[in-house]
C-alpha cells in the first residue's frame, strides 16, 4: 500500500498483516513433525486465540472508508497463512516408501487420522414392517405359525374357494386389480395388446389379491387339520386414497381349524392379541354382526380408539362350504378366521392420523418411529 492517500491506520494494519504472514511462513517452514505442526496451526489459525483471529479484530479499528481495502488485505494474508500451513502438512505427511518419496497431496494429505470419525446415519425398519414383526411375535407366542402366500392370485383362491361365486359383486372388475392376461385381452377386446400366439391355451384370469384370506385356502388345501396359522402381507383394492384408505395396504389373517373351535375362542384370541399389543388396561374390542361369504356367523371387529371405535377388520367362523372346498369335513372340525388391517394397528400405536403419510416415504416423517 504505497498510495499517498492511504491513512495511517490502514498502513499500520497492512504492515502488521505482512509481518504476521512472514512469521507464519517461517514457523510452518520450520516444523518437523505433526505435533509441532499442530502447535503452529493453533498459534496462527486457532479459532479462539490464533494470531489471525487477533489480526482480524484489528479490522474494527480501521477507518470506515478503508474497510474494503483492509478486508481484502486480511483475506490475502489469511490465504497466505493457510497455504503455508497446507504446504507444511504435505511435507510432513510425505511418505518414503523404499527410497521412493511419494507425496500425498490434496485431500489425502489433509486427511487427519486422529480426528474422530463422522458417525453413519443408520436407517431403520419402516413402521409398518415393525408392526408386522411385533404381530408375528405376539401371535407366535399364542401358537400361530406365520406363512406367506402369493400377491398375484387366481380367482379360485381369491373368490371361488372362499364361497364368493362368479355372480358376486365383490368380483366386479372395477373393485379389483385384474391383470391383463390373454383371456382378459381376447380378440375383439378394444385394448388388445400383442398376446400369446393364436391357439394358445386360454389363461386363467389373474388379479392382485384383494384379501389375505386367499392364504387360508392355500394352507388348508395343502395341510390336513388341525391348522393354526397367521399370514401377513399386502393386499390391493382400487380405492381412492384418503386418510384411512390406500389402494395397497397390509392385512394380518388368522386361521385356526380344529375339533370344537368356537366363537369364544375367536374373541379370546383377538382380545389377547390386542391387549398384548397395546397393554391390558387400555384395550377393548367389540364384535358387530356382519357378513362375509366365507364365514358364518361373521363379525366386524372394532377396537376402542380416541374415545370412539376403530374398525380393525372382519372375522367369523369358517363357513362349512369353505371347509368342504378344501376337502375338510365340517362335521369333524370347525374353525375361526380373522383379517385385520395392519396399518390401522400401526396408526393407533403411533397416533398417526393419515395412512398416506406411511407411503409418501418422507424420511423426516418415517424416522420418527
Ligand atoms: N377378508 C376379509 C376382508 O378383507 C376379512 C376377513 C377375514 C373376514 C377372515 C372374515 C374372516 O375384509
Automatic annotation (TrEMBL):
Keyword Iron assigned to the entry: answer is no
Pfam families recorded for this chain?
Phe_tRNA-synt_N, tRNA-synt_2d
Residue ranges of the Aminoacyl-transfer RNA synthetases class-II family profile domain? 135-345
- Record-level GO BP terms: phenylalanyl-tRNA aminoacylation
Gene Ontology cellular component? Answer: cytoplasm
The reply to whether Nucleotide-binding figures as a keyword in the UniProt entry is yes
Q: Tell me the cofactors it needs.
A: Mg(2+)
- Gene Ontology molecular function, alphabetical: ATP binding; magnesium ion binding; phenylalanine-tRNA ligase activity; tRNA binding
Please tell me where Mg(2+) binds in this chain. Answer: 296
Q: How is the cofactor bound?
A: Binds 2 magnesium ions per tetramer.
- Return the similarity comment: Belongs to the class-II aminoacyl-tRNA synthetase family. Phe-tRNA synthetase alpha subunit type 1 subfamily.
What subunit structure does UniProt give? Tetramer of two alpha and two beta subunits.
Q: What is this protein called?
A: Phenylalanine--tRNA ligase alpha subunit
Q: Which organism is it from?
A: Lacipirellula parvula
Amino acid at each position: 500500500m504505497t498510495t499517498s492517500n492511504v491513512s495511517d491506520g490502514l498502513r499500520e494494519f497492512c504492515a502488521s498483516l505482512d509481518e504476521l504472514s512472514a512469521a507464519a511462513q517461517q514457523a510452518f517452514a520450520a516444523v518437523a513433525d505433526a505435533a509441532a505442526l499442530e502447535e503452529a496451526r493453533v498459534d496462527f489459525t486457532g479459532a479462539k486465540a490464533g494470531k489471525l483471529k487477533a489480526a482480524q479484530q484489528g479490522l474494527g479499528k480501521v477507518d470506515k472508508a478503508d474497510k474494503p481495502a483492509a478486508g481484502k488485505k486480511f483475506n490475502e494474508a489469511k490465504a497466505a497463512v493457510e497455504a503455508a500451513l497446507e504446504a507444511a502438512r504435505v511435507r510432513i505427511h510425505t511418505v518414503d516408501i523404499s527410497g521412493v518419496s511419494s507425496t500425498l497431496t490434496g485431500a489425502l494429505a489433509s486427511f487427519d487420522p486422529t480426528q474422530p470419525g463422522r458417525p453413519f446415519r443408520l436407517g431403520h425398519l419402516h413402521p409398518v414392517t415393525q408392526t408386522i414383526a411385533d404381530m408375528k411375535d405376539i401371535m407366535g407366542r399364542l401358537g400361530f405359525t406365520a406363512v406367506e402366500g402369493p400377491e398375484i392370485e387366481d380367482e379360485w383362491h381369491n373368490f371361488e374357494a372362499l364361497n364368493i361365486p362368479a355372480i358376486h359383486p365383490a368380483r366386479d372388475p372395477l373393485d379389483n386389480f385384474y391383470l391383463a392376461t390373454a383371456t382378459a385381452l381376447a380378440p375383439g377386446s378394444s385394448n388388445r395388446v400383442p398376446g400369446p400366439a393364436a391357439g394358445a391355451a386360454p389363461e386363467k384370469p389373474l388379479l392382485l389379491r384383494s384379501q389375505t384370506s386367499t392364504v387360508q385356502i392355500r394352507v388348508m388345501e395343502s395341510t390336513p387339520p388341525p391348522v393354526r396359522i397367521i399370514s401377513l402381507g399386502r393386499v390391493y383394492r382400487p380405492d381412492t386414497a384418503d386418510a384411512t384408505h390406500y389402494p395397497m395396504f397390509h392385512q394380518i389373517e388368522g386361521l385356526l381349524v380344529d375339533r370344537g373351535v368356537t366363537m369364544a375362542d375367536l374373541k379370546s384370541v383377538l382380545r389377547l392379541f390386542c391387549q398384548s399389543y397395546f397393554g391390558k388396561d387400555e384395550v377393548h374390542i367389540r364384535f358387530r354382526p356382519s357378513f362375509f361369504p366365507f364365514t358364518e356367523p361373521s363379525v366386524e371387529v372394532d377396537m376402542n380408539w380416541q374415545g370412539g371405535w376403530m374398525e380393525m377388520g372382519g372375522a367369523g367362523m369358517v363357513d362349512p362350504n369353505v371347509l368342504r372346498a378344501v376337502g375338510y369335513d365340517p362335521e369333524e372340525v370347525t374353525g375361526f378366521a380373522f383379517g385385520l388391517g395392519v396399518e390401522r394397528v400401526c396408526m393407533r400405536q403411533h397416533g398417526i392420523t393419515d395412512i398416506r403419510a406411511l407411503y409418501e416415504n418422507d424420511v423426516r416423517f418415517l424416522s420418527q418411529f
